[in-house]
Amino acid sequence: MTKILYLHGFASSADSTKALQLKKYIELHTKQTNILIPNIENNILKAVDQINLLMQTEKPTALIGSSLGGFYGTYFAEEYGVKFIGINPAVMPPAQMSQYLGENKNYSTGEKFIINQDQLDLLDAMAEKIKTIKPGSNYMVLLQSLDEVLDYRAALSFYRGAYLNVTYGGSHSFENFEDYFQKIRLFLNLH
Questions:
Q1: DSSP letter assigned to residue 102
Q2: CA-based R_g, the chain, Å
Q3: CB proximity list for 160: less than 8 A, separation 6 or greater
Q4: Which domains does the chain have, with CATH numbers?
Q5: How far, CA to CA in Å, does 42 sit from each of 53, 57, 79, 87, 165?
Q6: For the segment 108-117, what is each residue's pLDDT rounded down to a tens digit?
Q7: Fewest beta carbons less than 10 Å away: which of 14, 42, 118, 126?
């Protein structure tokens, strides 16, 4: 039985379009695969604790993460030695996230939350631990070159040695995600 833990991006939710599309595909096209799509805490300190607890209790065999969820996924894939698929993943988010210091609003739920320096410091410490990763055959990274939030070239460099799939065009939300489901299925050997 394959168990996938899907990690959505910053200020998103388990109801994100990509998560729901992938869940539907897995339910229709596999019999021995479960996908867990939790609402990841907006507070980064709580999110890291939440994901760590899910890794320990649910014992997923693969992680799929989008944007900040991709950063989390990379970190926990390294920690637990599981397969990882990144969808326009954030590579080193602390500097990129400083613009979110203060009050924010979750795009999906409307919930207001605070990002403070302690949370960014945790991301910085996590980034330091995975400065050099061992991607090899455990990593597949899907990128779109017109991502308006993250520079796909940073991910190309960071995930060197992984299976990289770059689509020229697209956006941060990763257009036509459903076109990649067969690649995901093959990479994770889903049944």
A1: E
A2: 15
A3: 135
A4: 2-188 (3.40.50.1820)
A5: 16, 21, 22, 19, 29
A6: 999 999 999 9
A7: 118
Q: Which residue has the tokens 């996908």?
A: 35
Find the DSSP H helices in 30-164. Answer: 44-58, 68-80, 93-97, 117-129, 152-158
- Segments in the chain below pLDDT 50: none
Distance CA 15, CA 32 (A): 23
Residue 133 zone, left/alpha/beta (φ > 0; ψ -120 to 50; rest): beta
Quote the crossing angle between the two packed helices 68-80 and 44-58, to the nearest 10°: 40
**Reported pTM:** 0.96
Half-sphere exposure of 9 (CA within 13 A, CB side): 20
pLDDT digits (tens, 9 = 90+) for 76-116: 999 999 999 999 999 976 567 889 999 999 999 999 999 99
Measured distance CA(122)–CA(124) in Å, rounded: 5
* DSSP 3-state of 77: helix
Residue 130 corresponds to which amino acid? I
Give φ, ψ of 38 to 5 degrees: -80, 160
Residues 58, 36: contact at Cβ < 8 Å?
yes
- How far apart CA 178 and CA 108 sit, in angstroms, is 21
